[in-house]
Amino acid sequence: MDKPVERMEKGQVDPAAANVVPIVETLRAQATGRERERRFNDLLDALPAAVYTTDAAGRITYYNDAAAEIWGHRPILGTAEWCGSWKLYWPDGTPMPHAECPMAVALKEQRPVRGMEAIAERPDGTRVPFIPYPTPLFDEAGKLIGAVNMLLDITERKRAEDQQALLVRELHHRVKNTLATVQAIMGSTARSAETIEDFKTALTGRIGSLARTHLLLADQAQAVDFAEILRSELEAFDDGSGKRIVLSGPPVEIPARVAVALGMAIHELTTNAAKYGALSVYGGKVEASWRVTIEATRRMLGFDWLESGGPAVGEPTRTGFGTRLLEVVLPGQVQAKTRIEYASDGVRVHYDVPLPAETA
Question: What DSSP line would sit under 111-174, residue for residue?
Answer without folding.
Answer: S---S--EEEEPTTS-EEEEEE--EEEE-TTS-EEEEEEEEEE-HHHHHHHHHHHHHHHHHHHH
